[in-house]
UniProtKB/TrEMBL annotation:
High-level lineage: Bacteria, Bacillati, Cyanobacteriota, Cyanophyceae, Oscillatoriophycideae
Coiled-coil portions: none
InterPro entries reported for this sequence: Erg6_SMT_methyltransf, Methyltransf_25, SAM-dependent_MTases_sf
Protein name, as recorded: Methyltransferase domain-containing protein
Boundaries of every Methyltransferase domain copy: 45-112
One Pfam family in the UniProt entry: Methyltransf_25
């Protein structure tokens, strides 16, 4: 999958940051939130607005959780799936194209949600 150049005049913020090499797009209090959540191996986490899958990949690598990400943008979904495959986490991290405002369409049960 080749990346297309990003036009910073009209691109969405997360696309510009990703083009600049930023992998985790939500920083700051996220570390504290992760500690508070006390993720346990084999729990299933629902990742809302999963973008390029980097947060879900990091959660799975760090805590051994299974992650199901929901992302509306089909280009982001495609890129997330490549990132997951490159990380070797196809059995741990899944990205579903969908709308976080219509979660009834997402199958499964989840121990925690992140977004």
């Amino acid at each position: 999958m080749t990346q297309t150049p990003v036009n910073i005049q009209n691109a969405q913020g997360h696309q510009v940051l990703a083009a600049a090499g930023k992998k985790i797009l939500r920083t700051g209090g996220k570390e504290q939130l992760f500690e508070w959540a006390n993720f346990q191996p084999n729990e299933t986490v629902l990742e809302l607005a999963a973008s390029f899958g980097e947060s879900g990949i990091a959660l799975s690598q760090r805590y051994g959780v299974r992650v199901v990400g929901v992302e509306k943008n089909p280009e982001s979904v495609a890129r997330a799936r490549v990132n997951i495959r490159n990380a070797g986490l196809e059995n741990q991290v899944e990205i579903i194209e969908g709308d976080i405002f219509h979660l009834e369409a997402i199958p499964g049960e989840f121990d925690l949600a992140n977004g």
